[in-house]
Amino acid sequence: MIRSFVMIGAGNLATNLGIALRDLDIHSRQVYNRSPEAGKVLAGSLSCQYIPALSALDREADLYIISVTDQAIAPLAAKIRVGEKIVIHTSGATGMEILDETSANTGVLYAPQTFFRDDPKPFTGIPLCIEGNNTFAEEQLIQLGRRLSDRVIEMNSRQRLALHLAATFACNFTNYLYAIAEKILRKNEIDMELLMPIILKTAENAMKKDVFSRQTGPAVREDSGVLGKHMDLLKECPDYREIYSLISQNIINHKHRNDKL
């Protein structure tokens, strides 16, 4: 059983995961982070030592969590050698093999969710995608995952990358489109709150199967008049105009490949 951990990283996910493990009475031994300020804050929250360099790494923890940006995983993994202790990363887009040299037991714990360092939340109900390089590592991570959430899924690196891509479309891109909508409304002195009902309804529709069958709007209707008016309104925003045109045309193309509409 995993009773202790070292957190490598102090960003949004590292903070949420560290606090969630603390609340399960899993002991944090150390926090390492490139930025001392953030690292010391998380170490304070976890009541453990902050270390400024991996050369000071405590090698007696049960679990070592690398929760950093994707491009930082490999350089950090190259500095970690902990024998048979379990080493994991939390990325959706990076394969498990990047940890091969760190330990005999490695894995991944990926949560397709948006986290914020200043508003930590429990993992209850959040899917946790688990991969281990052997039966022991996988079983230990599954047990840990089930203590954190009631939704634990075994998933290989290719599946995890596909889920990460889908989440990028569903979350990151959608959030940016909300930001565009907010800017358009602000420019026209309209409150963003007026979009809340349609945003919530759209999210509700996305929870049902065959999402595209619920597509609405001028593009799926091929309403050239409305599309033209929208494009005219975006003349002063060429970047937004390009996004509008590309997505609208893709909706039309998708419609013609889908006989249900």
Question: How would you describe this protein?
Answer:
This protein has 261 residues and is an alpha/beta fold. The longest helix has 31 residues, at 157-187. It has helices at 12-23, 36-46, 70-77, 135-148, 157-187, 196-206, 218-221, 224-233, 238-256, and strands spanning 4-8, 27-32, 49-51, 63-66, 86-89, 105-110, 128-132, 152-154. It starts with a strand and ends in a 5-residue tail after the last helix. The protein has nine helices and eight strands. Strand 1, helix 1 (12-23) and strand 2 (27-32) form a beta-alpha-beta unit. An eight-stranded mixed β-sheet has the order 3-2-1-4-5-6-7-8, with helices on both faces. The mean pLDDT is 96. The chain is elongated.
Supply database-style keywords.
46% helix, 9 helices, 8 strands, alpha/beta, single chain, 261 residues
Short description:
This protein is of the alpha/beta class and 261 residues long. It has 9 helices and 8 strands.
Give start-end ranges of low-pLDDT stretches: none
What is the quaternary state of this protein?
single chain
Structural class: alpha/beta
- The tally of beta strands, per DSSP, is 8
What is the N-to-C succession of helices and strands? EHEHEEHEEEHEHHHHH
Describe the secondary-structure layout:
Blueprint: E1 4-8, H1 12-23, E2 27-32, H2 36-46, E3 49-51, E4 63-66, H3 70-77, E5 86-89, E6 105-110, E7 128-132, H4 135-148, E8 152-154, H5 157-187, H6 196-206, H7 218-221, H8 224-233, H9 238-256
Parallel strand pairs: 1-2, 1-4, 2-3, 4-5, 5-6, 7-8
Antiparallel strand pairs: 6-7
